[in-house]
Amino acid sequence: MTGGTTPLTSLPAFKALGAHHASLRGVHLRELFARDPGRGERLVAEAAGLYLDYSKQRVTDETLGLLLDLARASGLRARIEAMFAGEKLNVTEGRAVLHVALRAPRGARIVVDGEDVVPRVHAVLDRMADFAGRVRSGAWTGFTGRAIRNVVNLGIGGSDLGPAMATEALRWYADRRLTLRFVSNVDGADFVESTRDLDPAETLFVVASKTFTTLETLTNAHTARRWCVRALGEERAVTKHFVAVSTAEAEVRKFGIDPANMFPFWDWVGGRYSLWSAIGLSLMVAIGPERFRELLAGAHAMDEHFRGAPFERNLPVLLALLGIWYDDFFGAETLAILPYSHYLARFSAYLQQLDMESNGKRVDLEGRAVDYQTGPIVWGQPGTNGQHAFYQLIHQGTKLIPCDFIGFLRPLDEVGEHHPLLVANLFAQTEALAFGKTAEEVAAEGVPALQVPHRTFPGNRPSSTILAQRLTPAVLGALVALYEHKVFVQGTIWRLNSFDQWGVELGKALANRITPELTAPAEPRLTHDSSTNALIRRFRRPGP
Ligand code: F6P
């Protein structure tokens, strides 16, 4: 990597950004817009059906120039090529990072370990399409011969959040005769509540797990099997009511699912990047193979843009650089994702894993502790609900919270005046955050002096606005790919391995140690710290 030996914070571009920040931090967005009235039409970029307005960000042309210098000094171009070429960028696990191959069109060529993986990808997509078609048409029947009416995805993390988010986002396109549920939590309440009203004879379980060893998913899968076999009377029922999505055929066999009913994917697909793989099977059943392919095509359009567009017009690069500007120079700790679409209710939760599991790291690729801020805390809720909950803090609190607003020009459901009301709120929030309302303006409205400071809005609170025409599968694909690549660009500049997740391991190992201590009939000898020991003893105490 260019500059790989020079520490990030010693790169001339990074230092120049520090000096530039000192001169820009006191400048208000009001002033930036006054100086350049065309800014709102100039600081925009468009690709793959998405329009990005970043004019309400606290940047000037100089800021953008310096951020682009930083991207270049970080060897970003070469790193993008390395990803698309199947290089093993996930160095701690020795794996390629090729979610882009999952949405490459038939005939494209992407080689991993000497093998073109694109034909394999399409062979699995074709099998998925065949299976999804049979479930949707009623040709695939349950053990008693009844058609499948319910599909329950059992998975967690990347094996849940992607398909769950996208199934909700694309519900408008779904076959409404089918009920889709997603069970992820090891809390039995999740399984019980999700299956309470389902008939086992009409229910198909998709056990989705890359490793097929994840405790939560395997626990839910065993519970599901008991639920199914108890109701249908025979172990043999499992073949008609369970399919698996995994990279681990041996583990799938061990569970008792016939590999003929297994849809594979590969170790070069990270869990949080796996929506496009067979992990999307439940989504494909819901919306149909054609719509699923449109989702892939939308993501591919963003891939092409990311790979080919100059950085100054490149949406993922721009979003990434803006994030670095706030994280590393303004000291912002979080990023709010605010979709003005009810269908995108799970989008922020999905991005939490994508971003925080990828770039929530404190050592660089060489294992050295970094001396700069890395990935932000990602959070958010769909608008307008958030406006009546936490926007107060964004407008008038003491913290700087960069926001990404996401909206659609046309609704899927025309219901009275709802859509203009929704979009007016989105636009109004970006305006209020940027420009605020001065004490003079408040006083001029006749507000009592006592209230003036309370009703003043400082403004200068940055946001991006991402707009698309309608929420289609292709637009969703482009939107998700936009954020995937944003995370990649930031990881490149921060010199992180964005594709491992060792930070989840310690808790898993300790839970495995504690579980038998909670359930052992004889009082175990506890050797934890005094707090953990006391919690365990409290759990073991007989309840009232
Ligand atoms: O939380 C850790 C993690 O490994 C995620 O990265 C992954 O998406 C999730 O667990 C589920 O893993 P699997 O698909 O192997 O069950």
Describe the structure.
46% of the residues lie in helices and 10% in strands. It is built from 22 helices and 13 strands. A 6-stranded mixed sheet has the order 1-2-13-12-10-11, sandwiched between helices. A 5-stranded parallel sheet has the order 6-5-7-8-9, sandwiched between helices. Strands 3-4 form a two-stranded antiparallel ribbon. Helix 1 packs antiparallel against helix 4, helix 4 crosses helix 14 and helix 7 packs parallel to helix 12. The termini are far apart. The structure holds 6-O-phosphono-beta-D-fructofuranose (F6P). 6-O-phosphono-beta-D-fructofuranose binds next to loops.
Uncertain stretches: none
What is the approximate shape? Answer: globular
The assembly state of the depicted protein chains is single chain
Query: How would a crystallographer describe the biggest sheet?
Result: 6 strands, mixed
Number of helices: 22
Mean pLDDT: 97
DSSP, total strands:
13
